[in-house]
Structure formats: structure tokens, C-alpha cells
Amino acid sequence: MGYDIGWIIPRLRNPGRLWYCASSITVAVVGLFSKIIIEFLNKTTVYNRETLAAAVRRPRGQPLLTVSNHHSCFDDPGLWGVLDVRSLTSRSRMRWSLAAHDICFTNALHSCFFALGKCVPVVRGAGVHQPAMDFCVERLARGEWVHIFPEGRVNVNKEHIRFKWGVGRLVAECPAPPLIVPVWHEGLDAVLPNQEPYLLKFRKHVFLNVGEPIQIHQLLDKLRRANASEEETRAAITDTIQRELLRLRDATHALIRRAAPKRAADLLAPPPPRQDPEPEL
């Protein structure tokens, strides 16, 4: 039997003063650490940075959902190292992120650290109706920021993976349509490789492209008029988000080939297949 994570989400719902203070410190320290790694010890090229900054500084009460590809265990928090210091060190502004319970929440110490860092334990294979998803729907309803990797695991081989329907549920059940911002990145798997000994690397080149917000209102109206079922609604929303994120992938690859043609061949080529199976994160 694995570590019991049943206490985590109740604690996240009712943090208490001491927990809130510890969480604020954890968020700030991890955010600043990520910024040092991404912007000072490695080189990061960001396209459309202002869109992400504007989304994080959105009007109070507007829900924000960010979606991205998942190539490395450092994708989150590494992605957010490009934000300004004020946002990185603000617990109220920073994201909630779904994290695999069997990777990040395997003992009391790890569980406390990730929970304090606003990570929510999701159980792979438990479906879209599980406590972690319920919690994230609640956060969006309160106008907070939730980040999700729709592939559902670290895509080590950078293959095509159908997005999980959880992202569709987050959008469908949010009382007000969230601001959906796609992000595509390349190079974070060089900063933290997916092979042992899992040590951070330096002087690598990371590319991050922030897409324009995905327009979902018309699709939601169409689904309501058609009296679509919950499953049909989740599937349609998920397909739309996947299509837009893959378009952003293609645009990002084109930008990288123009900006760094010598680097692009290695950066964009999938790694050779491994003999041992990769864990799903």
C-alpha cells in the first residue's frame, strides 16, 4: 500500500495560518530557484512573453487555465521561471498544478513539500471524477490559476499522445469560461534529463512559446444548444485544446529552426527509444 494522501486536499482547502505562511515561503523559494536555473544558468528564448504575463495579471476573479506539453520533470516549475519576480513570489498569483501521486507524494516529506508548493495529487487511471479534479474545478470557479499537462505523463519520446479528458472537464464545469493559454516549450529535458542521475544541467538553450488564448465560447454555446452529454462535451473541448496546442508546437518548431538552425536538429529530434519502459508521470 502506498503513502496515504487522503489528508492533502482537505488541508489545501483549509490551509490554516501556519500552513499558508509555509506555503507562501515554499512558492517564493521554488519560484526564485526556477528563475535562476532558467534565466541565469541556462539561456531561455521566450516568444510572446507578454501574453503569459498579462494572463497572470488578469482581472481578479477571472479563472486561468494553462496547458502545455510535458517533456521533463522540471517543466513545472521551470516554465514559470520566465515570470517576473513579483508574480513568482506571490502565492495568490501562482498556479495550482496537478502532480502524479505515485511520483511526488510517496512519503510525508515529499507530500508536504509539493502540497506547500500548490501541487495537487492526481491518481492516474482514476478518471476525471476524482478529488484532485474536483479541487481544481473549485479553484477555477474561484478565479484562480490551474496548470495541467493534458498528455497525462512525461512524454519522454515526444510521441503523439491523445490528451486526457480531464482538461475538458476543467473547462466544461467552470462556471465562467476560463482564459485558456497554451504554452509549448523545447529544451527543458536537456536542463533536467529523463535519465539517471537526474541532475540539473547548465548552459542549455530553452525555447518557450506562449500562444494566444484559445477561444472556447462558441464551442461551449454550440454544445449547449445541441444538448451534448458530459462525455461529448469533455471530448469536444479536449480535442479543441489538443488541436490548438499542436498548432502552437508547429509554430514553435518553425521559430526554432529560423532562430537556431544548428541547434534545431538536435533539439527537435526525438530521443532514441529506450529498452526499459518509461514511467507515466
From TrEMBL:
Q: Does the keyword Plastid apply?
A: no
Query: Phospholipid/glycerol acyltransferase domain: from which residue to which, for each copy?
Result: 64-188
Q: Which organism is it from?
A: Helicoverpa armigera (Cotton bollworm)
Recite the lineage of the species: Eukaryota, Metazoa, Ecdysozoa, Arthropoda, Hexapoda
Q: How does it sit in the membrane?
A: Peripheral membrane protein
Keywords of this protein's UniProt record, alphabetized? Acyltransferase, Lipid metabolism, Membrane, Mitochondrion, Mitochondrion inner membrane, Mitochondrion outer membrane, Transferase
Cell inner membrane as UniProt keyword = no
Where mainly located?
A: mitochondrion
Subcellular location(s) of the protein:
Mitochondrion inner membrane; Mitochondrion outer membrane
Q: Which InterPro entries match?
A: Plipid/glycerol_acylTrfase, Tafazzin
A Pfam family it matches:
Acyltransferase
The Gene Ontology terms for molecular function here are:
1-acylglycerophosphocholine O-acyltransferase activity
GO annotation, biological process: cardiolipin acyl-chain remodeling; inner mitochondrial membrane organization
Q: Where is this region: Disordered?
A: 262-281
Mention any one GO cellular component term assigned to this protein in its UniProt record. mitochondrial outer membrane
Report what the protein is called: Tafazzin family protein
Q: Which reaction does it catalyse?
A: 1'-[1,2-diacyl-sn-glycero-3-phospho],3'-[1-acyl-sn-glycero-3-phospho]-glycerol + a 1,2-diacyl-sn-glycero-3-phosphocholine = a cardiolipin + a 1-acyl-sn-glycero-3-phosphocholine; 1,2-di-(9Z-octadecenoyl)-sn-glycero-3-phosphocholine + 1-hexadecanoyl-sn-glycero-3-phosphocholine = 1-hexadecanoyl-2-(9Z-octadecenoyl)-sn-glycero-3-phosphocholine + 1-(9Z-octadecenoyl)-sn-glycero-3-phosphocholine
Q: Which family does it belong to?
A: Belongs to the taffazin family.
